[in-house]
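Writing this down once: the sequence line spells out the residues, with the fold written below as integer tokens. I am pasting one below:
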Amino acid sequence: MNVRAIKGILRKDLIEIRREKTTVFWIIVFPMIWLLIMGGIWGHTSPPVTLKVGVVAQGSGAAPIVSAMGNVTLDGRHLFRVIEFKSERSALKNLSSGKLDAVVVFPATFSENLSRGLPVEVVVYYNRADPQEYQIAKGVIEGFFSGFSRELAERREGVLIETLERFLPENTTSRLIPLIEGTARPLSLEEKNVSGRNISPVLFFLAGVMGIQFLFATMSLIGNGTLREIEKGTLRRIAASPTTAWDFLIGKLLSTTVVIFGSILGLIAFSQLVFGSTIFPSLLGWVLLLIGGAFSMGLGLAIAMLTRNVRATSLTINLVSWPMMFLAGIAVPPSTLPNWARPFVDYFPLGRALKDFRLLEIYHVSPSQVAPDVPWLLAASLAVLILAALTYARTVRTLE
């Protein structure tokens, strides 16, 4: 191994990349734009939504709760824009045409059953055209009626306890009150914040942009970069010099590593500057990123050596990268994926490395929970690098 030759190739590549404005844009500037857009749209706490809800009250007794729906606010914003309809058919027609998010139908016996302490069934229809909006609408409406039901149960509890205290002996009442309270409120849920852990949503997308860099920029730099050198005849000239083809490959790998990790450092600083929040990886975090980079470099080089054409390499890299960006949970939360896509998150090495990186650096799990994945991730990356080296060696032999 000729260290001087490797340093020369590394220096040459860095100078060439710096001169290529288009490459600099896609490697340095575009990831920042992507983070700015993704972080600006989804990287913060979403404001409360206002749902357009059609209401059909088949009796006059639902007026107070309909009024309450129209007046309820969160962070100064109304949760419901209530539109009253005289018939259920008319309301459902508006729901089907997309003019409403939901339709709530109060039965004619609503007021009577409430006053008598009997169960009441309220029917809700949702607009399911957009799955995410459906989940939001369902959560908001169920949350409202859950709160209403809880308040109603507490009022009935108070009336019942007052009645018992009036007609039953004190010792009997004291034994019944806890049972009544447990019946009215069988489960109590209290929300608390974890002290010292303020996780910004933008960090998820920062880690995602790092993964996208590996998927596209890393694979393209090493794959297309090596092919262009072959087309220019660089490897043929190297074969006739003291510098070996392996010195050339090591230099290429090092230059790609320097450029991509330089880009990641830029993203870390950019996130802190724009969003006031960033990730400063631990040693294990850098190891996971390095393993992910090694896997991508090996895969990109293998694709290039197998296709032996710059255009075909670019198309194949895109064909592999675009589905994996979503299926491996790199650009989207893994929790949003269907069950059939979950194995990609766990077994696609780059997706798994990024998942572990997020767990370690964003959610602050113990390194011992992530460390067991490192050996098999490293083995997978080495296997891909070996495959890339074998295909590269075959290509070099044909040139010689």
Q: What stands out?
A: Residues 51-184 form a domain with the abc type-2 transporter like fold fold (CATH 3.40.1710.10). The chain has a mean pLDDT of 83. The first strand starts at residue 51 and ends at 57. The beta strands are 51-57, 73-74, 77-78, 80-85, 102-106, 123-126.
